[in-house]
Every structure is written in structure tokens, then in C-alpha cells.
Amino acid sequence: MRVLISGLPGVGKTTLVKEIVALFPSKFGGFITEEVRDNNGKRTGFLISDLHGNSELFASIYFNSPYLVARYGVDIERFEKFAIPALEDAMSKERIVVIDEIGKMELISQRFRKIVLEIFSLDKKVLATIKLKYDTFTEKLKMTSGTSLFILERGNYNDIKSSVIKALELEI
Questions:
Q1: Does this model's pTM top 0.90?
Q2: If you write DSSP's letter for every residue of 88-137 in order, what string do you get?
Q3: Cα(72)–Cα(136) distance, integer angstroms
Q4: What mean pLDDT do residues 39-60 have?
């Protein structure tokens, strides 16, 4: 069973994943991405974190990179050095693979695309957030057999949380 959570930016996809992982920490492996904000609350970049507390800045308004998403320079090497081992580790163990997020920045990496396709080809449970906007690659994932897509909105947060826990066959 692969569970994909999609929705508009800022609706709480990462928060939802973090809450579910916190309920069952030993059952998950993979990574989470989060915004980085300055002292004035202005978003300046994105951090990737494994589920053991290690993290790395991989996108920033201060990075000079050939890969730009909006105003953020994306350091693909940093992302790959962190994300790929976290996913490989989760795949090698009896863990639900967390991929937060399958989005525009992450999809710049061909190595990331390859490992995501590999994960989706296996009989592994997956909990991932995925961009809402149409993209050929992400649409293929959404249509993969054994995949459930949940659209998160402000008003359905608790219902989606319960549905995701049930879909992953987790017991509270």
C-alpha cells in the first residue's frame, strides 16, 4: 500500500506526516522536508531531515545554483547525499518509507526519480507527500496500482489523518 498526500502549499501535508510518524516512530524510515524561516518569519529555504534528527539545508535563497525553483537555489548534491541513503535505509528494513516530498525541487534529481520509481515497484508501504500540480512523473505515481491518493484541505485534516493511518494498517 502506497499512500500519497497532496494538497495546496501550506495546507499541512508535512505536519500530518510528522504527526503520524511520531505516533509510530519505529515503523518508519525516510525523510521529511521543512521550510526554513529567518527571524522575521520570511521563508529562506528548505531543510531535509531523516527520522533520526539529522538534517541538511538543500535549497536556499542564498544558494547560487543552476537549479532554481522560484527564488530558491537547489543544491542537488546536498539533497542526493541525504535523501538517497535515507530512502535506501528505509527500503532495506521493514519500514514504511516516508518521502516528504515528491515535489518540484526534489524532482530535479534524476537519482531521486529513479529511487522513487524503484520504491513504487516494490511491495513496500509508502507514506509520501506529492505535489498537486500536474506533472507526468507524479501522475504516473498517483496512478500506480496499490496507491491511494488523499487530497488534504484545511477542513478535512483529522479525517485524512484517520484514513491514512487506516490505509497503512497502523493501530493506535
A1: yes
A2: HHHHHTT-EEEEEEESTTGGG-HHHHHHHHHHHHSS--EEEEE-SS--HH
A3: 23
A4: 95
